[in-house]
Amino acid sequence: MAALMGGMGAPHRPVLLRETIELLGAARGGVFVDGTLGLGGHSEAILEASLDVRVIGIDRDREALELARERLARYGSRFHGVHANFRDIARVVEEANEQDVSGVLVDLGVSSLQFDTGERGFSFRHDALLDMRMDASGDEETAAELLARLPEEEIARIIFEYGEERRSRRIAKWIVERRERGEPIETTKELSDLVGRAVGYRKTDKVHPATRTFQALRIAVNRELEGLSEFVEEAIDLLQPNGCFVAISFHSLEDRIMKQTLRRLAGQCECDPRAPVCSCGARRAVEILTRRPLVPGEEEVSENPRARSAKLRACRKL
């Protein structure tokens, strides 16, 4: 069981757990898809809600998947874990021979296991190779390989757009200058130290200045924003009438995509009002259940600081 703690010394705490289970309506039973299984906390709560629940858990991280399978083994055939990207949800559900999906959950961002396993290279709290791949067994580029290949302008764009870092050009310039000296960035410490020097880090700063750069590189390495809107549409198409979709995001760009996609699927046209024909694909397929995103309360944030930036949006299929 210690392995399930992800090195944290305390049980993994799923974010906005009570709200998620209530919105999904797990107590009524049915088939639910947890698109980002992680350590299985949300799936465990869904399975506990009713003996008539079955869960398909998807994760691209093989290590997390195996730990979740161990955690959820007592539910037997009611739980089915799959190594895949949540964007492959339609294929996964078809291959599982399931129909009439009652609910879909996706908890975006990095899992506690990934953050707290130093050698995965997600956090500058641990000195390790700069990896950042959610699927460490895959053949995708690592963050170090990305920084060794991309031109300065593209590195600056990634850090600015995905990290919302206003000093992105200076950081990118320093990265490339170091690379040209034959000293490419290869470890988390090398990157965090460089960013700290580039932007002027003070020990009194509440947030390390490398935080936004690390976030941006993680998003780029794992292509976290690509196909997100299309995934939402596919997930909702899989739902049976009155089935619910719940998304938890931790980044403003992810939340913006969720907000815009759900509005469009609720029939709110995004086209220029002067346009003669709608071209945005708006269709009335869902009812939005969260006019404003739900956020963790003070008690949850105090117990789990990582929940601080979480935003939950949900809808019900018509």
Determine the oligomeric state from the structure: single chain
Here the CATH topology of the largest domain equals: Rossmann fold
Kindly, what is the distance between the CA atoms of the first and last residues, rounded to a whole number of angstroms? 41 Å
**Strand arrangement across the biggest beta sheet:** 3-2-1-4-5-7-6
* CATH level 4 superfamily of the largest domain: Vaccinia Virus protein VP39
Main sheet record: 7 strands, mixed
How helix-rich are the residues, as a percent range? 25-40%
Total helix count?
Answer: 13
Rough shape? globular
Q: What is the typical, i.e. mean, pLDDT?
A: 91
Strand content: 5-15%
Structural class label: alpha/beta
Describe the overall structure:
40% of the residues lie in helices and 14% in strands. The chain has 318 residues and is of the alpha/beta class. It folds into 2 domains: 2-109 and 226-317, Vaccinia Virus protein VP39 (Rossmann fold), CATH 3.40.50; 139-222, DNA polymerase, domain 1. The chain has a 7-stranded mixed beta sheet with strand order 3-2-1-4-5-7-6, sandwiched between helices. Helix 3 (62-71) links the parallel strand 2 and strand 3 (79-83). Mean pLDDT is 91; it is low at 1-11.
